[in-house]
Amino acid sequence: MSLSGPVLDHAAAQARVAREAYATAVRCVAGGPAARLPGPQFAVAGMRAACDTMTALLDRTPDTLAAACTAAIFVDEAAERVVAAAERLLAHDPEGAARLVELRRDLRVTPPMSDDRCRELAGKAALGIEFDATPRWL
Amino acid sequence: MTAAPAPPRTDVVALARDLAPTLAERAAAHDRDATFPHENLAELVSSGYTAMTVPAEHGGPAVSLADLCAAQRILAGACASTAFAVNMHVHGLAMIARVGGESAGWACRAVLDGAVIAGGFSEPGVGGNWWHPTTRADVVDGGFVLNGRKGFFTGYPGATHLFLSAAVTDDRGLPEPVAFLIPKPEQGVRVTAEWDAAGMRATGSHSLALEDLFVDARWAVGERGALPMLFMLGVHWAWCSFASCFVGIARAALEHVVRTQRKRVISVIGKPNAHLPGIQFRIAEMAAKVAAAEAHLDAAIHAEHEDVDPLTHYVDMSVMKTSVTRLAHEVVTLGMQVQGGSGLASGDPLQRMYRDVVAGLLVPPATDVVLEWAGKQALDVPIFAEPRWEG
Fold first, then answer.
1. B9: three-class secondary structure by DSSP
2. Is residue A122 domain-resident?
3. Interface test with B, best of A7, A26, A52 (most B CBs within 10 A)
């Protein structure tokens, strides 16, 4: 069975978690005094930018293992960055922080393929090396 | 005119592929000497490349934004300076053509005859707030007299026409920003500093002083005060094409590093470096960031551009440019780590890409303004409210 589907599904789930973390941050900050401070403005803008990039990438990733792994590498890092930014922003907001605890747990769901295996496959694909070449390295 | 133009070409992506190898051969010398690539520009004119954004109603090929960006990515991978210099021309003309009217008509005719446009909206002290030009346009009989300073006037040495901004003061004392497209004048424009920088060294991005420069009224593009709206509604041409240049550098850096690591053999291991896990992991990160940057750019290229709220459109495109150029910079930085010390050597094009790609972080729109506007928009804070921040 091809792993590209599960890898992409997992990446899409991570992107949804990130989008929800961004929405939570906006919901909790908008209308309050923090919304008129530069720090929160910059933070939510950074989250939004990362979410837009993740969405665009997943919409355009072909259903091949190499492409799926390549996209997953980006989404894994970007989603982590978004959730971490939301956690910092809402550290003193009990409702927002509670929601982010749930989202952090969702983000940690075990991926169908380890990060290192994704990097190996994506790297080998970019370098034109067969996935199952032996020895695995050198 | 820089060269006799060929009939306009619609297949600009194929044309860019044809031109790229020659541009790549010349890139190192122009970078080393900080010379403007006049011969490259002449080839872009004579091949019909510079006419790509002339609309069909003016006899041009009306190349799409997607094809423009694809072609510019290829050129940038070969010679980023040439791509960035001609970018001012192709996207500038698209924005002028979008305004329509007399100025669009004569600009398009001039370009079909071989004219080349350089753009100058940046000014010292404006800090990326291009909609607040400090260059003054005083109304006189038959036109305007301009006084002010322009920085980063990319493509100036090869230009036949200048696309620039200034502000007329209205009856209430308020500035009305306006754009002009003028034939490059014999007098009234002085080069105060020739471009000599770490990156994009062959772009001729000189600093200029406009000194009692008379501009005929017919060279105005759009109505007085219309410049911000003109720019916001046409901004996809600007920011997508800017981003394309830097994505092109990133893609070229990835391909160059992959080629090198597939060939480079360290004697103690006896196989190409490509078989080392650390190399594979970093190449994977580069490939992931390139794919992400290309995807975000592609989404912006194919977004709705006509039936839009101007400010939302401007913010969307600006967020894309900011993200894409940051990713492009990260890609080339990773490439330097993969390549090792040889990547710093003057004979390796990666060091030029490394210096060129930094410019993506610095060219408009200013990152901090983009983050401020996108943040305020998301948090439902009026973007132009005063005071700008509270606390």
1. coil
2. yes
3. A52
pLDDT tens track for B294-311? 999 999 999 999 999 999
Q: Does B20 touch chain A (CB under 8 A)?
A: no
Give chain A's domain count.
1
ipTM above 0.90, yes or no: yes
- Asked whether residue B23 carries a pLDDT value surpassing 90, the answer given is yes
Inspect the interface and report whether the beta carbons of B284 and A35 lie closer than 8 Å. no
Using the CB atoms, write b or e for B18-31: b if 16+ within 10 Å: ebbeebbebbeebb
Work out the end-to-end distance of chain B between its first and last CA atoms, rounded to an integer number of angstroms: 56
Query: Domain span at residue A83?
Result: 4-126
CATH code, domain with A88: 1.20.140.10
Q: Are A75 and A118 in contact (CB under 8 A)?
A: no
Q: How many Cβ atoms sit within 10 Å of the Cβ of residue B77?
A: 26
Contact B60, B108 (CB under 8 A): yes
Whether A19 is in a domain gets the answer yes
Distance between B385 CA and the closest CA of chain A, angstroms:
10
B85-111 core/surface letters (b: 16 or more CB in 10 A; e: else) = bbbbbbbbbbbbbbbeeebbebbbebb
Q: Is the pLDDT confidence value at B6 over 80?
A: no
Q: Please check whether residue A137 lies inside any domain of the structure.
A: no
Write down the pLDDT at residue B259: 98
Q: Does the residue A106 lie in any domain? A: yes
Which residue carries 């400010």 as its tokens? B311
**Rounded-to-integer distance, Cα A53 and Cα A48, Å:** 9
